[in-house]
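Sat 14:20. Reprocessing the chain from the morning session after the first attempt stalled halfway. Input below, unchanged.
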Amino acid sequence: MGNDIARHFAHLPDDEAADAVALHVETFWDPAMRDRLRALATAGDDALDPVVALAAGRVRDGVTRHETEAQPE
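Finished this time. Tokens:
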């Protein structure tokens, strides 16, 4: 599923695509799915699109980037 999402953002540079994939994962995937993605990326699963592997390292638990960005500093 992550590879499908990465294809959707293929028109973006890899760094921006990874951010977009990470945001999607944080927003729509449940914690077990996020854990599985990180495990696959950590294991170096060759089936993962490189953008998805990059995004896996950017996925946060429990809070989306939108919520973090909305908080005053």
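The radius of gyration is 12 Å.
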